[in-house]
Amino acid sequence: MSPPARARHLLIVDDDDRIRELLKEYLARSGFRVTAASGGAAARKLVGMLDFDLAVFDVMMPGEDGFSLTRWLREQKGPAGRTPVLMLTAMGEASNRIEGFKLGADDYLAKPFEPEELLLRIEAILRRAQDRPAQGGPLLLGRCRFDPDRGELTSDGELVKLTEAEVALLRQLARTPDEPVDRLELARDSVDPSGRAVDVQVTRLRRKIEFDPKVPRYLQTVRGIGYRLAPD
To answer: Which domain holds residue 32?
Structure first.
């Protein structure tokens, strides 16, 4: 059964005091519990202290922008890292929308917008999140098991040593199991943004996970796109 709207907690992050207060007042009247922040630093502290059902991030903010904040949120362990994100922006270019989606945003709304449209988009995202199978738990990969929250890979119950880069790569792939992830997106925070370092990490991980690394079953190449994690 769906929880009542009043139980759902939203995080609003916008540096514009007027917009932030208007959104907070409107959404509170619509039955949500609303917590607001004026920037990335305050938002990070709130995420560390409170649980949120959805976050609304303005893209254009001084200091840390909405893109960077979304990237940081998706790197968090547990439920926080899976918090749905709706991005608000005055930039209407498709490239900016694509950038937001690549970073893990769930939806995008261009300013100016009608408050009712914002409300409808929030409700739609929350419905999708409720219907989405829970992710972030351990994934079975044949004889191996990967726990994204702990960053641990085991094989037949024995802990497999991973580098920090390998843990980060597996976590990125584990966020969307069975879906291809762009190779350059995987390389975004690596030492080599060309993607070559990712290719090396994939090769090493296949030696640790696959029965036959030359014919990978679990860490698959998706030609023209990148890689996909395909758990049992």
So the answer is: 5-131
The domain boundary residue, chosen from 96, 113, 131: 131
pTM of the model: 0.56
**Joined tokens for residue 209:** 């996970």
> Is the pLDDT at 200 greater than 80, yes or no?
yes
The DSSP call for residue 176 is S
- For residues 119 and 107, the answer to whether their CB atoms sit within 8 Å is no
Do 124 and 19 share a domain, yes or no?
yes
SS3 content of the chain, % helix, strand, coil (to 5): 40, 20, 40
- Give the pLDDT of residue 4: 44
Per-residue confidence band for 163, with pLDDT thresholds at 50, 70 and 90: confident
Neighbour-count burial of 115, counting CB atoms closer than 10 A to its CB (0-12 exposed, 13-18 middle, 19+ buried): middle
Angle at 159 between CA 155 and CA 164, to 5 degrees: 110
How many other CB atoms sit within 10 Å of the CB of residue 95?
Answer: 8
Report the alpha-carbon distance of residue 184 to residue 55 in Å, rounded.
26
For the purposes of burial, counting CB atoms within 10 Å of the CB of 61, is it exposed (0-12), middle (13-18) or buried (19 or more)?
buried
**Residue at a domain's end among 115, 131, 147:** 131
Q: Which of 81, 124, 125, 135 is nearest to 103 (CA)?
A: 81
Interval 68-115: pLDDT, tens: 999 999 888 777 888 889 988 876 666 667 777 777 788 888 888 888
Helix 115-131 with 17-29: angle, nearest 10 deg = 60
- Token representation of residue 101: 């989606």
